[in-house]
Amino acid sequence: MISVQNIALQYGKRVLFKEVDLKFTHGNCYGVIGANGAGKSTFLKILSGEISPNQGQVSIEPGKRMAVLKQDHFAYEQEQVLNTVIMGHQEMYRIMEEKNAIYMNPDATEEEGMRAAELENKFGEMGGWNAESDAALLLSNMGVKEDLHYLTMSELSGSDKVKVLLAQALFGDPDLLLLDEPTNDLDANTIVWLANFLADFKNTVIVVSHDRYFLDMVCTHVVDIDFQKINIYTGNYTFWYESSQLKAQQIANKNKKVEQKRKEMLEFIQRFSANASKSKQATSRKKALEKLNLEDIQPSSRKYPFIHFKPEREPGDQILRVEKLSKRGEQGELLFSNVSFTLNRNEKIALLGQNTAAINALYDILSGDQEPDNGIVEFGQTITTAYIPNENEAYFSGAQDQDLINWLRQYSENKDEQFIRGFLGRMLFSGEEVHKHTSVLSGGEKVRCMLAKAMLAHPNFVLLNEPTNHLDLESITTLNNAMRDFTGNMIFTSHDHQLTETVANRIIELTPYGVIDSLMSFDEYLVSEQIAEQRKELWGAVAV
Question: What's the CA gap between 433 and 424, in Å, rounded?
């Protein structure tokens, strides 16, 4: 289907990868993983032809059509939504435009009429007669309502634009599908739909994603960029991760405990291969797991930060009471009202909602950064909090622009430089990196700094608003484990499905006219008809 021969790419003295020889075969889904900066997105750009490698070549089977998820959300502002989706099949759209131009020309010649008939046949052979209905079905399945299909892209919200561009890539059953972070800015239901769509997709998919749930759902193979090499391994992300960890243990420690781990891993392979609950995965469809070989996996060079929230004191019986909270936005729009709930010991709440501005406002109120229009927020006297907002620029710019040692020192009771250096080292800032100024940090580095700040507070209550944003898979995995093991209370929001499913023991969904409060698991919540009815009733109040 598509292969690369002797690919190499470097920028100056920095080598991303070299001597890469790979073949991507029909019917498989390849998840591309690697540390931040390893070249995942760059590799997809080489495959798509957007950039050229320093050496080597990419070969695509003749006659096969490639589709690529576009990241420019403003590229089609004046185009109708349905047409934007159909543009995903460039040849079909070109034919449609040409024949329609002939039909609309009252002075068309006989020769042009013959040309239109020829184009009509080609259009039909491509499935063009069903193009609008197919595009509309894709959009509706993603939650883009029918009354939006004939608007221009400029009239859509940001989240709906993302869905349209994704539908554009999926449209027309491409032979080769390249997706770079397709789950970014998608709601949980759309991510589940996309995972199921790709699990049933019969052609070749190559996808970059930091969403472990998504990778596990769709991938038959993992493409690992490490040690300046790119290797393909059979299996999904969980198998690659656990195998890589085991391999590292085997190398570091040749004792009986490792042999026991090996036995556990082999049992894991057998369970995973036979697990009927994963029948939607492409892995079970292709029976690729039957070929799993533990010896093929190599230990990873990637590093994992140390994240551990250690409460300084146990919380008392009174944790948090929220009563009849309401808030309007800067333009007077209602964000939420009648928000009431009480937190109990050991509860970890996943806060959901369709309106990001409302979610952000509630976090700012809970953290004390904003005041509600009405209502009460009351923490227990024993509660100490830490807050990680989804927008953290204010913590790193202006007066806060200083080197990492001095930046973190201001949040630590222990001011000793060696202590601060050690803490930064745990968060993967070592050597001269501790002298970097906060204004030049990447998004992922800033989040790691905010996590360090939160840990130094020794809270027994943590507020986390999209903490996985900008983090790589290694940091997300470590954060997931830290949140799961935390012994205090927590309210968090995350687009990471696996994190939400494994951490939350209570779900609260925010709507304009109240909350939906449930003790279901996240997976149960997503498919619950009862929850869907409650959501419909509360959102229906907006239209009244």
Answer: 9
**Other CB atoms closer than 10 Å to residue 312's CB: what's the count?**
9
Burial level of 354, CB count in 10 A (0-12/13-18/19+)? middle
The mean pLDDT of 291-302, rounded to a whole number, is 65
In which residue are the tokens 């009429």 written?
Answer: 113
Count the helix, strand and coil residues of the chain and give each as a percent rounded to the nearest 5: 45, 20, 35
Interaxial angle between packed helices 158-170 and 188-199, expressed in degrees from 0 to 180 and rounded to the nearest 10: 0
pTM assigned to the model:
0.83
Encoded tokens for 355: 């309106």
265, pLDDT greater than 70? no
Q: How far apart are the C-alpha atoms of 432 and 446, rounded to whole Å?
A: 17
DSSP state, residue 415? -
Asked if pLDDT for residue 26 goes beyond 90, the answer is yes
Distance between CA atoms of residues 204 and 45, nearest Å: 16
**Fold annotation for 320-543:** Rossmann fold (3.40.50)
Q: Is residue 253 very low, low, confident or very high in pLDDT (cuts 50, 70, 90)?
A: low
Count of C-beta atoms within a 10 Å radius of residue 253: 11
Percent of the chain's residues with pLDDT above 90: 72
Is the pLDDT at 193 greater than 90? The verdict is yes
For residue 239, pLDDT beyond 50: yes
Task: List own/partner pairs for 40-44 with CB under 8 A and 24 or more apart.
Answer: 40/180, 40/208, 40/225, 41/180, 41/181, 41/208, 42/9, 42/16, 43/17, 43/223, 43/225, 43/230, 44/68, 44/178, 44/180, 44/206, 44/208
Residue 249: phi and psi, rounded to 5, are -65, -40
If we measure between CA atoms, which residue out of 392, 389, 384 comes closest to residue 489?
384
Q: How far is CA 90 from the centre of its chain?
A: 27
The CATH superfamily holding the domain 1-64+175-300 is P-loop containing nucleotide triphosphate hydrolases (3.40.50.300)
Question: In sequence order, what DSSP letters do the residues of 470-487 get, joined into one string?
Answer: T--HHHHHHHHHHHHH--
SS3 384: coil
The string of DSSP letters for 205-262 reads: EEEE-S-HHHHHHH-SEEEEEETTEEEEEES-HHHHHHHHHHHHHHHH--SHHHHHHH
What is the spatial distance between Cα 507 and Cα 459, in angstroms, rounded to a whole number? 22
Q: Could you state, in order of their start, the residue ranges of all structural domains in the chain?
A: 1-64+175-300, 72-163, 320-543
Q: Are 320 and 462 in contact (CB under 8 A)?
A: no
Tell me if domain 1-64+175-300 and domain 320-543 are identical in fold.
yes
